[in-house]
Queue: 4 jobs
Job 1
Amino acid sequence: MKFFGPLWQPFLKLFPFFVVFMASLFHPYDPDLGWHLKYGEYFFHPPAGAGRILRENIFSTEMPNYHWVNSSWMTDLISYMTFSNFGFLGLSILGAAIITLTFYFFSRAARLDFFEKALTFPLLLYLLAPSNSVSFKGQLLSLLFTGMLIFFLREYEERKSKIIFLTIPLFALWSNIHGQFILGLAILGISIALYIAKLVTTKVDMGEIFASSRLLAAVFLASVVAACLNPFGLNIYYEALRHFGNPLQKYVAEWIAQEELSISWWKHTGVGVILFVSSIFVIFSGEFFSKLTSLVVLPFYALSFFVRRYMWTSYWLATPLISPAITLVKPESRKWAEISGSLILLIVLASSLYLNNPFKNLSNMSWESYCVKFQNCSGGAAQFLVENKFRGEIMTFYNWGGFLIWNYPEVKPNIDGRMHLWEDEGGYSAFAYYYPIEQNIEDVDSSKYSVVLMAPYKPVYKRLRVLAAQGKWRLAYEDKYAGVFVRN
């Protein structure tokens, strides 16, 4: 637009991503943050010298020295280096930067113009808010790598770009960052199959089909091998595959089905309606076969009804199929498309600054604010346990394990966020023992624990109150967020 001069086009390119960055600045509150930091610290400052990856469980009382395949060991290093130098603010900025880069790669892959970004970005920010608001964590890096993978595939699909070979080192890095690399391999395999189907249905020369098939099959196999380039070798696959169909997952919210008619269920169903409308539009516009590879979203969208964790990946993969529906409301004039898109993004920016208020929330971050605002963990209760060295086995709240490991190493939690799928050679699972007691399915009075640190809203807390009234236990400490019960 001539009125705005030469700065207008750079503004259109940068403004959507600036809005995303500002809307993604959150106080870090990952409940696993503490043990991620401790693992990173161990790598740089272990007792036996720097550079050693911690493989044994030395941070909790349950399952001591359990050998764990830590697929996020490199994320732990990033977390520790960032936190040790820049604190919570550094993690917040890093998380927002990774989210913004993810938007960049998916928008490039979907070939979104400015108006399409103005409508798609706010929708994605809304849908992904439960994941993004946790701030920096390994899963954000996995979603970024998914965006890079989709971008590489799109570049090959349209231009036969050699950038597809970057897929191989991507998986070599990904398998050291987060266990979701195996989901990336599934996306790669399905996308390749859809691309070959596209070539066949569009009656491309058979020589080109065979050449593309050989090249892409080689890239896929090389990526599978590249993922083994980590400190744990093939065991990285075993650890990732343990998450599929494991009965212990029913105790973890992100691995269970969405509750029917819940807000999350309705949001996910709404995305399905958008995908359906957009697909109909694509079919009638004659672009179905050109968009065939975008159907990679469908299996992950369907699985998301049964496993919540797949939602975030499915929303990102839906981007290329959502964009065609936007043309139904897109102004024909480029001028008005740019003006209306700018107004939409300004409203989103103002709303996020008002609701999230990052400048206020990020100005005074600490472990105290981490606890008070999000985890409701109690430094007072932990300090009480430090000062009163109680004998006997202690039961601590699962979500506070990371907080205790980093801030109060003298108080070893019995369990923490690493351990929900751990099972030793004898079949013992610390989480399977802990969870029924926390939910008061099994009586804490019959358990091995003699000290319990617990949040008041957990069912076992109410049971301990009854036991204290009966004189079997006593409430040794209580504040707004926690109580410490000791067996008499």
Job 2
Amino acid sequence: MNDVFKRKLFGSDVSPSQWKLPVTKEAKQIKIDHIQVRNNIARCIVKNIDVIIEAAWPPERIDLQTELIVAISKCRSAMELLTLHRELTEEECDQFQEFIDVFYEKWINIFGDEGITNYFHMLGSGHILYFVRKYGCLYLYSQQGWEATWHVSGPRTGGA
């Protein structure tokens, strides 16, 4: 996994990054520690999560790997809509919730109830869509918190 991060996410085969995956060595087992990074690194990880999933998932469960990649892809597409700096059209609102519905169903199929966080609940239950329809562009109300972790196309410029 360290090589995946160094050569595929943050560098290349010719010029690997110096970043190291935090690990703990316990007896004969190596475990990945909590990864705490700056926002630009977190965005790179989210943008390239497919590469991480492909490297980390057991090959005998390719069906779950594929389902997880599709789920993440739908969530990423939904977050791209949600983080636009404008009000969404009705069609975009509907598309947002369709992306989330597919994500939510696949996520629960893979991880069960243990995989549902408060934020995933807010998305899957339609709470976020309710607020988008009621208040319009949520970016105008908050530039902090979990919204910032999902924007994958680069740093924001300008603002409300």
Job 3
Amino acid sequence: MSTVLVTGGTGTLGRAVVPRLLDHGHDVRVMSRRVDPQRVAPASAWRADMQTGAGLEAAADGCAVVVHAATASRARQAREIEVTGTSRVAAAAKQCGAHLIYVSIVGVDRHRLPYYRGKYEAERLLADSGADWTVLRATQFHELMDTFLSRRVFIRTRHLRFQPVDIGDVAGRLAELVAGPPQGRAADFGGPEILSIGELAAARHEVTGRHTHLVPVPAFGVLADYDAGRHLTPEHRAGTRTWRQWLTGRQPR
């Protein structure tokens, strides 16, 4: 088995990926700016800062694979983390000869949202880095859809739809990619169903009793890209856990 570094290993996706890799027998390193060794055991804790690069080369040294799951939690950090940070991670992976797997989002190459543009720039940077690489694009996680709808008031354009995917399903796919050779651009990974924002809100209300008021708005700017479904991948319904199954198994906010 391999030694695998997971950047953002204490984040939402990282916490799902790490146990999958451990179950497959890998020696896993969890990298974050703040990481408690006791909380990540039996994985090992490695402190590094992608914004400065401090500790990154040491964390990657000796690894066969780097799963780059770290992402920006705030819009103002997007360029530092997605572009500058990915550049540093790619350099560290190249230096130690590791296969770098980058987690991206479906539609980043055809969407005007600044965060998506940052992701796409990071993909192109990775392709030119000289490192061995794989990019996995996924659709929106169930948790993100729940965050949107927990605001009690949300927008709806005429054709607004989403293809929510389970984090566990994506983590399983990442574990498969870790065990295989670099693929470049891997097949997109989408959820099993495409639902309108009205269907998503109605299912959430039915399961949890919590209502979200949907406000009609025109499809302009980045909303036009969402309305056109540029974040969807209907030909790649690879996930298995549906929105309703996720709602039933976990109490949303």
Job 4
Amino acid sequence: MASDPPRPATIRDVARLSGVSIATVTRTFQDSPRVRPETGARVRAAAERLGYRPDSVAQALVRGRSNTIGLLIPSLMQAYWSEVADEIEHRAGERGYSLVLASSRGEPEREHAMLDMLYGKRVDGVIVGGVAGNPDTWPSAGSRSPLVLIEWDATPQWERLRELTERPLGRSAWALAEQRIAGSWFAHLSADDIAGSTLVARHLLDKGHTRIAFLIGPPVRTYLLRLLGTRSAVEEAGHALAGVAADEDTFEGGRAMATKLLGAPQRPTALVCCSDVIAVGAVRAAHELGLDVPGDVSVVGYDDIELAAYLDPPLTTLRNPKRELGDLALDLVLSGREGTAGPIVERLTGELIVRGSTAPPREVGAPAAAGAS
């Protein structure tokens, strides 16, 4: 008959082996100056021998801090958010903090549950990327656990998409950029998507493109702002968008949208994609149709995920300030923890990275060579 598993070591076992009181063991793991170094060393040696690990939640309750930061992102599989998470984890480690990572999967109910879980672990602050639900309904740990949002309003707005594609750009469209999240939240950070998409559009216009189409994933606020900036810049140059297609924010979604747009009798000469993931699918579609990128069609992405530089041809893209957003979010959480910062709203500027997927259209000047930039 199988024997029962060994009983986990307790604080009482550590006290007995090291010859001290339970209170001394507790003070040792709280790094109390009241414990002499030689006593502390004996306690830690006993704990190591027994395989004892102090209860981090209980320690957090006593000390008022856990040296952990909660990070809630839409998906562990999305390249953009995984790169943001990597930066935050790296920076947190440098400052003596560990990260508790969770995924909302873009579901408001799960987002709420994951926030409950993070607060239950007594994290010292929470960073939420790509908000899925309504923060007014979220649980709160109060000012002792500050909250920072990176982007917000990840709910698809289909009526707003129709407005931005079918109607003249008016005050209502531009009001989208000035919206603020409801509630008294600690901080909201975002990239300046209108400025970034304007850079992308002007890059293509400067190369002579006049038939520019836009590929958008589910019309969440971030992607709608990228559409708004692109359309505004194209119209300011005296042209109209050559088409707008919407699908999933996936490789296959990009492939399907590009196949549809590039199969039109008057196909666009340039595709602006709301994400690099969609752009990868668009390049695949162009190749399947026998089109050269960038000779027959230029393709631009957005975010500059690691894959972008390794695509064939390497992808021209708007580099979102992922590292800067992660750094600032962590700084704000920690400064909020110390009570030294207040609510802010801040937009960070991205950078256009020109690679081999864009060139002048063939009808402007000499034929474009594959890989030209």
